[in-house]
Amino acid sequence: MTYHEELVKSICARGLTLLKLPHLCFRPMQRKNNQVDTKRGFIIGQTNLKTGLITIDIWTPKFRKAKTLASILRTLAHEAAHYQKPPYRQYYRGHWIIRRHYPKFYQQVSKNILIFKRDKILHNYFL
Questions:
Q1: Biggest distance spanned by C-alpha atoms of the chain
Q2: How does pLDDT run across 42-67, given as a tens digit for each residue?
Q3: Cα–Cα distance for residue pair 112/127, rounded to 1 Å
Q4: CA nearest to 76, candidates 32, 116, 104
Q5: Is 69 in contact with 100 (CB distance < 8 Å)?
Q6: Is the distance from CB of 31 to CB of 60 less than 8 angstroms?
């Protein structure tokens, strides 16, 4: 395990405790191939609502260099918001749709990022 992975794990654990979600578990994403085809869509982070597992890619997609900690924390804020404002079903124009990303969800993401910026340790990564 590299220094970057250990640093990200400790910072994400602190971030989850700041958001008062200590029951969630963070894991860095492990890719099968070393590179990602950036011409197609690729996944930055994902979450499993049943198991409470958040998986975030901590390496850049093309050259596999270490991502900045601010971008990792922003992704963590987004993934944690899925637990704070869970998806719901809505009947819209004769069809059932699932609201995963909606305005209150994005307001929660912004609140999570502000919590990270106010912290004494994590605010250094947003400078």
A1: 52
A2: 889 999 999 999 999 999 888 889 99
A3: 17
A4: 116
A5: no
A6: no
- Token output for 48: 């499993």
d(C-alpha 64, C-alpha 88), whole Å = 35
Rg from Cα positions in the chain: 16
Distance of CA 54 to the CA centre of its chain: 7
pTM value surpassing 0.85: yes
Could you read off the pLDDT of 61-96 as tens digits, one per residue? 888 899 999 999 999 999 999 999 999 999 999 999
Both tokens of residue 13?
């654990």
What structural domains and CATH numbers belong to the chain?
A: 3-126 (3.30.2010)
Measured CA to CA, the distance from residue 115 to residue 77 in angstroms comes to 9
Number of residues written out for the chain = 127
